[in-house]
Task: structure prediction
Amino acid sequence: MTIPAARSHNEAMMFVLLRECRGCGRTNRDLTDELHVSETGAESHAEYTAFCRDCGNIDVYRLRLPAADPQAGERGVVFGGPEPSRILDAGEWVSVALRTSANTPEDPAGMTDQERSDAALAMHTAAAAVREAAKFIEPGRERLPRSAMWTDVGREEFDRDPWRFSRPRLAVLERAYLEAAERLADGRPIWN
Result:
């Protein structure tokens, strides 16, 4: 069996979070992970265990990881390098952005510093997910075709608003998330 290759631990976590429980079809799950590194250090893989809070089912996912994680030493949220994902399609990345930003308050009034930091981080994550979706647009093209979505989630997201998968619309969405993150952080540090 071929083990799918993730570009980073962050991408692997998103992959697992987007998968539905094989027992009940829901995504209300807790995750744990365990890293395994080869003796040469050239290859590693992680095993992610998803515990369903609704039905008690346990799913296990195994993904290959790069020797060097692109998040290492970077401020901000990084899911991979310049190449598009091979395990999440563009529609799934847009779904990540929408889910991550959905419960984030727009007005930081009355929020604690920790709540503001968490909300700003969520918006940075949404912006990074939108950047990942844009990586699927081929040079010289302005938008993605539906055929670029290989998952049900990706196709459903595309069908909701096909024009959202254009360079200009994705750029506006990314900028809006980054501006929201800045407003929420209000000069406070969010990176530990």
Remarks:
- The mean pLDDT is 89.
